[in-house]
Amino acid sequence: MKNIINNPAQKGERVEVMALFNYSRIPCQPLFFRKRGEEEVEITETLSERIKFVGDTAKHIFQCVIGKTECTLEFDAKSLAWTLFEA
């Protein structure tokens, strides 16, 4: 499996995400995402999640597995935008 390290030099791509939001132990779980003009891709597993505060907003960062490849999904709480970082 390839591991994605989220760094400023790495370019992300905006995606649409279907996520499950609830108030239990895991408040948000991404399930599927779709790149512009492409089919939905199922997220096989969520490995970890963390919150990073940048200025006046929170970025929710999810390490996920798609098939056998790891990726990072980032949710910006201010703009409500999802960004995908792939290998």
Amino-to-carboxy terminus distance: 10 Å
Placed side by side, the strands forming the largest sheet appear as: 3-2-1-7-6-5-4
Report mean pLDDT, rounded to a whole number: 86
Helix count from the secondary structure assignment: 0
What can be said about the biggest beta sheet? 7 strands, antiparallel
Structure classification:
mainly beta
Helix percent band: under 10%
Low-confidence stretches: 1-6
Strand content: over 45%
How would you describe this protein?
The structure is a single chain. The chain has 87 residues and is mainly beta. It is globular. Strands 3-2-1-7-6-5-4 form a 7-stranded antiparallel beta sheet, with no helix packed on it. It contains no helices and 7 strands.
Ordered list of secondary-structure elements with their pairings:
Layout: E1 13-21, E2 28-34, E3 40-42, E4 45-54, E5 57-66, E6 69-76, E7 81-85
Quick overview:
Helix content is 0%, strand content 60%.
Essential attributes:
7 strands, disordered N terminus, 87 residues, 0% helix, single chain, seven-stranded antiparallel beta sheet, 60% strand, globular, mainly beta
